[in-house]
UniProtKB/TrEMBL annotation:
GO terms for cellular component: endoplasmic reticulum; extracellular region. SUPFAM superfamilies: Thioredoxin-like. InterPro entries: AGR/TXD (IPR051099), Thioredoxin-like_sf (IPR036249). Residues 1-21 form the signal peptide. Keywords: Endoplasmic reticulum, Secreted, Signal. This is AGR2 protein.
Amino acid sequence: AMEKSYVSMFLLLVAISCALAKDVGKKETKETTAKPKLPQTLSRGWGDQLIWTQTYEEALFRAKHSNKPLMIIHHLDDCPHSQALKKVFAEHKDIQKLAEKFILLNLVYETTDKNLSPDGQYVPRILFIDPSLTVRADITGRYSNRLYAYEPSDISLLYSNMQKALKLLKTEL
């Protein structure tokens, strides 16, 4: 019983010190707001002013509870196709504006969820998931062999697919 209380006490101390460490970090950021804002790391260059989720689980939770569709972008840092699409996506003002209506997640690794790779694990690939957590298999790009692939030249199709994801949201849910 004595050992258990030591373990409990130790865990409590760890929790308190973690909480205090977080607070210290917050204070420092408040004082340094005068400096130019660094790009948000979660955006990975897809839109620094947008709010990005960190994990697939967090994104699903937010989509479900905010009643917003989720847009997942699978990409790789060393993939020229991903880089080219990212550049066009980040510079497209209408897409950046429309993206604010989505829960956003960009992944540089594969998830274990097979629903996110319905036709293979290629990049870049963009899937839409509605708040009922259903992958929208009906919102696809123009390639029959890679349904969720987009190239820079497909940016207007991606834009209309984003509009479609929002419209379906209103009509179906």
